[in-house]
């Protein structure tokens, strides 16, 4: 029986030798097409490379007119070669001239050839060119020949990606790999960042392509597949990690794909054709991604990321890398590009080198975005396809104002954005000047502008932003970035540092808010829930596990010795929860008193109003606590029945809708009625237009990210509050002409030249 794999193996061995020889790029390409033609007994072998202007240019040929090299060209979608590039699928024809897409290029002299095999040159599913073999006789090329040509195309793709062919490109032209490309999505945090791409889960570059022993490589592949399957089973079965809903569906998909016999067979075939196990994974995944990119079914297209993640996991298994590897050398102007990521993962990157964040998924209220906002970096989200199009080190611009990114931008665009950055810097200088001015409306009403924080890295921004204090200190971030529960001493040290940095300004600490989408992998009691956002989280969890709350309360009481302690409870649903928490606090106070610890001069207990049930017991709530803080992100989520992390709904409902503003007005009025201070912390506070609305509704204390304080204060100092209150009297219950409230507020500001 004939060994059909021997031909491809011989070809790959020859290619490996060619890649190691010190040859000029054109000579290397000429030798490659010559060897392919000889190995496959083809009379023609040609390579077309895709340029940035969507033209496929002939870069090398054996058998066609050599004078046609760098002159013969086809547009994307034109002719057989253009069809292959556009569809990212091979064409195997016994009589090419009968195919409806056939286009004759007279300069090549190819009219005498009948059989035709063309395959796309793919990298990460992206077409970079087309590789073709032809014969005069009418024949259908065998499957192993198709496989051999695809494998060879993979080698050429790496040559293109490394820039080897750039020297062959005519002046004024560029290869498609370097083509500028822009994406438009959503703005998750304002600002502009110019820098270089750092892929959060960097595409693993396979440098060892050709195997010495196929049987040994098959063993390595089988062992890594076994480890991969075990790790997925382990994640699905472990009780300490809350993989429910979408998380669990992804893992179930991983398990299905990892056990798919067709996928494994294609991997093994690639190895038997001479590739290493790593190169086989790269090739099969690139082929699969190219096919899925051109599918119209949205569900199948969404599965691409599952396949990519699974292939990356397998590559890491094969190459012995940990799942948390990040770029070895981070540029000083890093812009992280990710499909999605957790808040703790972002904090792994050194803040001084971050210039922006790009997410394919996510929502404005997801926790990684909240952390990025606290760090003061621009964020653009819903950038579908950005990860595939980006390479580590690519120049990139993130426009957090327009919700756009520009990969490999043209010099004039880069210059325009550099000027935009300079303009923003000048505007920031204006905001810095505003720090010295009172935080008052145009008609003299004081409004406290506080900042949100959660880590020591946030503290210097208190003075830089000119905040009146910290309206929300998220204590759970310390837990999220740690590998084990922070000890009481570590908690106490952080809380004391926060108070020291505040220099007498008020600080409101929120008790640990974990559960839901804030999973601590080391927390053994996490349960599986169908709807974690409505489940066992925040105060519900800590009252059931009082040891957590007692440890934190004790650390806070010690850290605040001789100073005021402002403490608030997250996700309160009924007043009984406040009474239970107060009992735990009183017990800790008595315990520390017995041992003569230095206690706070005063202790004020507040509740976060995030659950709609509290809207129907506002007066009772105001009497039960010393202050109330409105968590607008969750309150809006629950009032409007919209998952804050659902990308399909991220931009569907407006936070300035009349029903939600009416609810916020009720809360502010109840605070005045009961003489209970009310603050609002959340997305609403950080945008000038929504902050203006809050002030008009009666809020005199709002908390936001440090970067938002300058723009909000610029609005505040130009705001005639009496006129805005009259505006709400006229429009809150019945908006004029049925217009959306946002449009009415924008018109109000425009008429009075209020900067938004």
TrEMBL record:
* InterPro entries cross-referenced by the UniProt entry: GAF, GAF-like_dom_sf, PEP-util_enz_mobile_dom, PEP-utilizing_PTS_enzyme, PEP_util_C, PEP_util_CS, Phosphohistidine_dom_sf, PTS_EI-like
User: For this protein, what is the EC number?
Assistant: 2.7.3.9
Q: Name one GO molecular function term.
A: phosphoenolpyruvate-protein phosphotransferase activity
A GO cellular component term found in this entry reads: cytoplasm
Q: Name one GO biological process term.
A: phosphoenolpyruvate-dependent sugar phosphotransferase system
The Swiss-Prot or TrEMBL record describes its family as follows: Belongs to the PEP-utilizing enzyme family.
Name of this chain's protein:
phosphoenolpyruvate--protein phosphotransferase
Q: Per the UniProt entry, what species is this protein from, by scientific name? A: Mesorhizobium muleiense
